[in-house]
Amino acid sequence: MTKKNWEPKIVCFACRWCSYAGADMAGTSRIQYPPNARVIRVNCSGRVDPQFILRALKLKADGVLIAGCHFGDCHYVSGNYQTSRRVELLKEYLKEIGLEPERLRLEWISAAEGTKFAETMKSFVNEIKLLGPNPLADGGPE
Amino acid sequence: MSTEEPKIGVFICHCGSNIAGVIDIPQLVEYTATLPNVVVAEDYRYMCSDPGQDLIRERAREKGLNRVVVAACSPTLHEPTFRRVLESMGLNPFFFDMSNIREHCSWVHTHEEEAALEKAKDLVRMAVARAAELEPLVQKEVDVKASVLVVGAGIAGIQAALDIADAGYKVYLVEKEPSIGGHMAQLDKTFPTLDCSSCILTPKMSLIGQHPNIELLTYSEVREVDGFVGNFKVKVERKPRFVIEDKCTACADCLEVCPVNVPDEFNTGLGWRKAIYIPFAQAVPNAYIIDTEHCLGMTPIACGKCKDSCEAEAIDYEMKPEILELDIGAIIVTTGFKLFNAMEQLEYGYGKYPDVMTNLEMERMLSAAGPTDGKIIRPSSMKKPKDIAYIQCVGSRNERYNNYCSRVCCMAALKQARQIREKYPDINVTIFYIDMRAFGKGYEEFYESTSREYGVTFVRGRVAEVRGSFDSDRIVIRAEDTLLGQPVEAEADIVVLSCGIQAAENQGDLARVLGIQLSADGFFLEAHPKLRPVETNTDGIFIAGAAQGPKDIPDSVAQAKGAAASALTMVTAGRVKVQPYAAVVNEELCAGCGICEASCPYGAVKVVDNVAQVTEAQCKGCGTCAAACPNEAIAPQHFTMDQIIAQLDALFQEAR
């Protein structure tokens, strides 16, 4: 694929209670957003093992989005707080290994926030487009 | 891990034109057939229909399928449907995965057909890869406690509680106010039949008070909900009312001696009550309560007059809050609504001009049992008005406040206008509206006769401003008459604001306690807007009435009956299946470090003898422990490391 028509490929881990349903809501409301992301459904954003994120980036995902419940709304009491800590740490780690921490994004999207899901997709895709392809794609730091 | 070679059947749904109108189905089918382990790839117009389900069964028999993937709508909608199909043909229902190519693809990339097809291919490939890693799981059945908790005792809660209690099951009815009845108790008459609200409500309230299967907990709030479907552990706080319900005879002796006057909430502040009071005459329980905020002090030194006057010895100044722990099978939430605060819409002058009032205040004024004994007077002068104007859609259909239509205010205004014209043919009533919405059974007829036979005037146009007249004590309303296409100015003696319905004050807090969701408008979110309107996404918790969205009385009652039936279905069955997603420990890999124990929000994981152990009944399968474990030694079932990695790897296996 030439750089000109390059489209970022994004993985989204979405909590089934909020953000996955939020994405469903975007669907039922027919809110259009860029088709770059593929959603993996998890029970809780807290299920997202840092290994999943690193593997996705190693597999040359251009961006990873983790979407969970707003603070205080976690279906499992406190899973999202743990997610938040993990993501912050991982961003530091990404810097260390020479990846832009912006490739990893954490958003809180409720089941009602179809619009927010679509807006998040738009802004994340734009942001990744500015960053360019995952440097690992050119045999960068492994 | 199952040793059998995966034989996967993939069934792709057109969903009429919902999916097929965007995604090139033949191409998707052709592509799917090339995926590893896929034995059958087929499409059908409606996969969820009977013939669609039969197709899956037929192919499974012919080809010996042991895994099924359906690419269609959201699993939230039809995962249970297709799991049942697998079950019906003797396959483990967890050998199923769903690829969401409708909500997450065709509906949101409608104009990008090529990209949508590429995405659909990716999504199907990911689902197929995951399907190959699936493991058979056994869905456990648990007993359902034969009791239902109903939260909120307005008309919806009352109806739901009665239906369940009549079916022979125990009901705990929790109400945060001192009496049940909710907003309906404040209404004078109800549209479109003009029944007296009290006459149809209070008999039901009294049934609640007497029903042997109902334990009524008024002036109480739900503080904690633990457990899971069929087996909720609920903590309810009973706030002290300082009057012993069973002893109080409602004789009113205490009222005569209480020296404190407080604006009466039940009468929307138009009347007065004492610091010891009963909310209204027909209150259930029919017992007084002390309002500690206004009471001079419950000691003989400060006052103590009520206690001295009470012959029944019902007053107990030492009463303390009490926490009750209840075992509950199912929960119905009927917490109702809050009226839009008219102060927020400044241009209508509520709070500034005493003669600008809300629809609920007018309702109390119209009530024969209300603060004016049913007489209509101007609060500023206590005189009879000549002209009354209604302003519709206050706080509703307005992007500054609430976008939605509150549904009841048109009919409520028509009803009040008619009542006013019946009582006082010499008072003119004008209704300023955007659209009149008379959608229910008998409503349109009511609207027509109100305008034709009762001489109510209608002006179509949103009111821009309400202000005091410069040369009289009247009120000036400025609006645009959109039918005449010109600005109009009218004078009135009373302006009634048709305030809309809003989510209750603490709706978000309660949603958190219950673990259910809110929709964008702040009301509780139903599991499906059409087919599961009284269920939430949390099994065993149901919603009804205006807590789910603006609703009139007939709709609230209908929904309450629906919620009661749903809860009863669960409780009468006595058993319910729970999702088998609990975490499992690989004891060989576990180092006993205890990180999982620290991460578990439920205390379901404990390290015993250097190995983590999961208490299955406590584990809800969130998987936080799995993400925390440094050794991959613990994982929730159906969301294992291998299953998620398979999806990731499949996504990126295609050349970029």
- Structural class by SSE content of chain A: alpha/beta
Approximately how much helix is present in the residues of chain B? 25-40%
H/E series of chain A, N to C?
EHEHEHEH
Low-confidence stretches of chain A: none
The main sheet of chain A orders its strands as 2-1-3-4
Termini distance of chain A? 21 Å
Shape, principal axes of CA atoms of chain A: globular
Low-confidence stretches of chain B: none
Report on the structure:
The complex is a heterodimer of chains A (142) and B (656). Chain A has 142 residues and is an alpha/beta fold. Chain A has one domain (10-135): Rossmann fold (3-Layer(aba) Sandwich). Chain A is built from 4 helices and 4 strands, in the order βαβαβαβα. Chain A has helices at 19-28, 50-58, 79-96, 114-131; strands at 10-15, 37-42, 63-68, 104-108. In chain A, strands 2-1-3-4 form a 4-stranded parallel beta sheet, sandwiched between helices. The longest helix of chain A is centred in the middle third of the chain and has 18 residues, at 79-96. Chain B is of the alpha/beta class and 656 residues long. In chain B, helix 11 (409-423) links the parallel strand 21 and strand 22. The chains are: A alpha/beta (142), B alpha/beta (656). At the A-B interface, helix 1, strand 2, helix 2, helix 3 and helix 4 of A face helix 4, helix 5, helix 16 and helix 17 of B.
